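Blackboard transcription, Thursday session:
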Amino acid sequence: MFLAQRRLCSLDSRAKFLKTIYSSKILGLPASAKMSLKITNAKRIEGLDSNVWVEFTKLAADPSVVNLGQGLPDISPPVYVKEKLSKIAAIDSLNQYTRGFGHPSLVKALACLYEKFYQNQINPNKEILVTIGAYGSLFNAIQGLIDKGDEVIIIMPFYDCYEPMVRMAGATPVFIPLRSKPVDGKRWSSSDWTLDPQELASKFNSKTKAIILNTPHNPIGKVYTKEELQVIADLCIKNDTLCISDEVYEWLVYTGNKHLKIATFPGMWERTITIGSAGKTFSVTGWKLGWSIGPNHLIKHLQTVQQNSVYTCATPLQEALAQAFWIDIKRMDDPECYFNSLPKELEVKRDRMVHLLESLGLKPIVPDGGYFIIADVSLLDADLSDMKDSNEPYDYKFVKWMTKNKKLSAIPVSAFCNEETKLQFEKFVRFCFIKKDSTLDAAEEIIKAWIRQKS
Amino acid sequence: MFRNVAAIYLHLAGLLQRKKAGTSLTRCLHQTFAMAKRLQARRLDGIDHNPWVEFSRMASEYDVVNLGQGFPDFPPPDFAVQAFQLALSSDYMLNQYTKAFGYPPLTEILASFFGKLLGQEIDPLKNVLVTVGAYGALFTAFQALVDEGDEVIIIEPFFDCYEPMTLMAGGRPVFVTLKLSPTQDGELDSASNWQLDPTELASKFTSRTKALVLNTPNNPLGKVFSEAELELVASLCQQHDVICISDEVYQWLVYDGHQHISIASLPGMWERTLTIGSAGKSFSATGWKVGWALGPDRLLKHLRTVHQNTIYHCPTQGQAAVAQSFQHEQARFGQASSYFVQLPEAVQRSRDHMVRSLQSVGLRPVIPQGSYFLIADISDFKSKMPDLPGDAEEPYDSRFVKWMIRNKGLAAIPASIFYSMPHRKHFDHYVRFCFVKDESTLQAMDEKLQRWKTELRP
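(Written on the board underneath:)
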């Protein structure tokens, strides 16, 4: 039925064509150089080829390294989530294509869940789009709504994909940093990091198409307050700007804090895309399912991108997710509901990490939400002289040194900054704490040995 | 947005219905007139229309045998289902992110499996990218390589996404049509008689041509490009330094002893070809949405850049299941027990069944050598019932399909969807049927056709 590899015999006419190509051999050029004059990448990806994760996950792949870098849970997802997927794989029809904009039972479950937070009902077909992870929703939103020449405000530090996605759309990112209040002896909290309202207002102009908001925030763990969101909302309305609200960590909020949806603020539903993630909700990052929720006049453009990019997401995973949602939607006030039990579990881990980092002499920033914690590592004054690449920011060198010498990996926070402002955050390193106890135990061992070495 | 007062009124009434009790009317009014700026990016211009939505909706509203949708209505083979279940029940870490460019066991098996077929040393890290279906591979390729003003040659009839993907990347589609060579009277046409005119094809290449999209076996026609035809395309691509995007999702679905040839295996082509494949079509599991692109690193590296800035990772478990399924097939390659041998044998019988049955009502199928599909000539109907209901500019085949759904209980897809706008009127006498269906579906089709036959005028 299949051809084994066949070599064609040369024909006269073909020989003529080949002559043009092989003449390069006479000139001493490799054939590929001659042939690749025209075969170049599209301009939209110029300068976007490097990626911090590709570099650092390779480093941490060594099994002897305790990996607190990439935001990847090593805890097991809830049992009922795994069970649902297992049963579903056996259902024939669920192995074939489903509805492009989202599997019907999933969009219904999402509408039902999120209606609890919004004042309006949510139309599952017109106001929800299921995407390849929240990452895919970000891409669809930016490709669908951001044009060449637009400006997009990005709050620093930022989840690293925002900048390249904005650039790929031909738009200009405009950065504004979160700045910390002085803390003087108090424990440093993510809530100490705020935006200056005047500075923020100055970033808006007639070209501003959108602002990207991330709450709870990666990497700092900040949970924006009502007042802070109101400032952003007021500016969006005043400047007729869209808001892309990345809320993947929406359930991971710790005692004393509440996650608020900017889309529920007056005047905001019409101009906001709210993004969520199954991976972060149910600790199943490998399912790569996310969603965008918003008014149809915005969502329809994300749907257009969808139908011209991936068309549809995997069926069995969407059905399993729908069923998992129904279980937890029915018991939202129950402590057993995963939306309640996971943050409780993580708060304990957060507190453990804070304690560990403090014992090492660091000043961690205690996050109010999310599953990351950042700390200023320059206080350790580590000897990084054997890290050769002197052009890299301090935290890049530190993480590489720590991975190699302490077998503990993390992510440099300057990866979440743009070129010009990397120095502002280069002393900070990000640790992920959605890890099972044995992983945190191993990290604790490393840190204890480190402390002994220091003294 | 709002053309008249009535439209505004209806919109408000709709808002009022949707709002929950207690929401102020003032807020609803404010929401209606919130956005003055143009919302969508210009790259979406002209690509928002989705022809499938209408036909899927109609097919679900009426009692039809659905031969329109391009996916099997039978399950994937047992070994594939088991592979998925194994992926779900083994290492719980398969629920988490894997490597961005592909789950290693999958990229490794794809490299070894296709390396043999293409006669090429394939590196799993440099020459393989796993994508969200072949659809995702196509999108990634266009975004990586097609720039503003680049020309992309598309052979008609074409899988409908090639045109909007070219446009979204700022490219300009340049169409060249497969033309039918006339057959003997009374004989059914064959897809192999639909051919490219070499002079015409050559004339389509300009200094702006960046890529040519090849689809073999072809959707919707079912043509399997011959070696000579591929050599023609190959020589032009090399002469003009053009990239070949080769969509080979139906590579196992070839009939009557025809051979699928990958253009990347021809001399001089590996370095300029992206070969795209699909687990969905290979294992009758379209809902898994796992695809891949194979090619030289100098092209793949740009696809990787797009991939890491669009979706970044593909779901892990589907990839694990596909890797396992390929292991199964690699162990049986070329043998009678191979799914890649059994599937086309079974589907060929379905094809033959459909070809016989359709003729009973005066539809004239064009015999496909490959793929999931055939197109049937409806010229007889066009001359006997030229005035079917439809919109002003609606092509005949689209009206015919709607009529057939409403009146004859069969759903198909109008072939004009697979043509560029200016050429639709020349090909509005064909309709596409999918025959990768269970025997019971084909029998249900027969019942509908028998009833139709009795209703035909003598």
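Lecturer's comment: Residues 339-359 of chain B form the longest helix (21 residues).
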